[in-house]
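Hello forum,

I keep getting stuck at the same step: I have a sequence, I want structure tokens, and every attempt I make locally crashes halfway through. Rather than fight my setup again tonight, could one of you with a working pipeline run this one for me? It's a single chain of 693 residues.
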Amino acid sequence: MIGLVALWSHLLAACLFAGLVLWQLRQWRGDEKTRPLITAFAVMTVWSIFMALLGPYHFLSLMADSARDLAFLAFMYGLMNGEEDGYRQGPVKIVYGTVAAVIALQIVLAGLMPRFEQVPALIEALVSTRDMIGLTIAAGALVLVHNVYGQATPESRGVIRPAMVALALMWVYDLHLYTVSYLTRDSAEALLAMRGVMIAFLVPIFAMGLKRSTRLKVQLSRAATFQSLSLIVLVGYLILMMSVSRAVEFTGGGWLEIAELTLLAAMSIAALILLPSARARGWFNVMVQKHLFQHRYDYREEWLRFTATVSDGEAPLEQRVIKAMADIGGAPAGMLLLREADDRLSPAGTWNWTPPADASEDSWSGLIGLLERTGHIIEFAGISGGELRAGVDRARMPDLFDDMPEAWAGIPLIHNGRLVGLVVIAHPPARRALDWEDFDLFRAAGRQAASYIAEAQTMDALAQAQRFDEFNRRFAFIMHDIKNLVSQLSLVARNAERHADNPAFRADMALTLQSSVKKMNDLLARIAPGAKSDRGALAPRPINLQQVLAPVAEAKKRLHPVTLSGDARIFALADPAALDAAVTHLVQNAIDASPREAPVEIAFMPRDGQAVIEVRDQGCGMSAEFVRARLFQPFVSTKDGGFGIGAHEARALIEQMGGRIEVDSRPGAGTRFIIRLRLADSEANPITQRISA
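Reply #2:
Ran it on my machine without issues. Output:
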């Protein structure tokens, strides 16, 4: 029964794969990546025929088995072996070469087995070795399947997925078959017979992938390469230990068993000694980078890590820059020297580094000039009384570096042709000389880090300038208020010469002086240390507009004709001091814009459910463009000697109270400022009571 299943299932598989070959040949358009797959299908057809007619142990069957694995291995190698990312293919090629070498060993073994059919003990050893080799091939091939699929671009994965699934199933079955045969020392006839059924089942899976056509692209990565190598090493170790165990079993123990225990002990001791050692890990990493890869660095990964280190984290920027540079070279420590105003470099930050003693007498001009001209990376290992490899002679080096025996490389930070600073990093655990890749990558990273530091310095300077600007802006508002107070006091002083004997004038003068003193004290409080830059958050409350606006009108009547009209019962939600200041600004602007005898009117009334205050003048008026674009801009004025902040501050104060200012003005027809405030509630405002009724 088992024989019939093996015969017909393998014949079915041969017919199906032959059909795939014919189908592909009819549709083939000369695609180089498809040719290995067609070849593999043809080899699979021949192998299935040999398995059906000659059995699994015939020489031709064994040779076809190896040829099948080689053909599919060539197909996967063709997917990987593109023109792009060629410098990363070396390590992967080692894995392919290793698996191919094991397949070649399997072919040799297939040629030897028929010659020793009459020696049972030797045949048993050869069969066991064959199973071990088959297990190795299946495990290595599965690693490569994982490698190819894992490194394919997202758009290519959908195309190669069916083929990779089919190959994975085929080699997983082989792995199971050889493992069972090796461990049970049985020929596993049932598994060999069902192998044909499994192979026939792969045909529709392959066919699904052949229906899709797109450009395949594999992006090789170092991470996937190291994973593949690690898996190969792990599989190799397991196979080695299984082989040693089988050898001990064949020889009856003795010295081989002792050798096995000695090997295990030696590996354990080596792992305990080498794995915790940073120098050992560094040396291993250098050897792998040097001998397995064309380039030392994976530039994409290095740049992503550099950007993430500099951009993220709560550490100061200087420390992040040092760590990002040190990570590139695998350095354990570093220091940043920043350029001062007197063209000296002084320590600005360290990472795992003890700051050196102060070298205030050092001369930096020669080194700074040279680094700005050339951008050289300094290799401190080259300082031995002569020349540095980077072309910096010892005489140019400040004495500060004499106390840095651990220094390895100095990376200049150059921004727009100017040296911003210098990052000094320590030797990595595995000491080595700098090469051209280090120079290029450090130079590029130094320029990027310099831009970060220059931007941070610019932001600090801008913040400082903004603080000065804030102080100047606050002082300008205060000067505007002082100007109004001076005008008021000047008027009092002029009138005092003529009306000093008038009791009414003296009483009015006393009130004016008290008001001026109060306002001056407020100004002093605003410029005191710790004072806020504005008037703070206002707390509007119900106020009587008549009581606020009447003093403003009375004070300005001494300078210019001013009239006040309105319902004395109107209450609005406002801050009395802020409203007084806002209306005073607007009235003063109206006076400045009006002819000498033309009165300025202040009117207040309820309108559309709001308390409205209007300040009207008969002055020259303003254009619509000026009102829209310039009127409320600070420090813009049409008056000689004006500060240009009265209208700006008035609008800011009104808006803080929840109101707004509107302007109606035409050139030659005067101006009307309209202040809209919220009416007070009905309990405080008789006008709202009447409107509600």
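Residues 83-88, 290-294, 382-391, 688-693 have pLDDT under 50 and may be disordered. If your local run keeps crashing, start a new thread with the error log.
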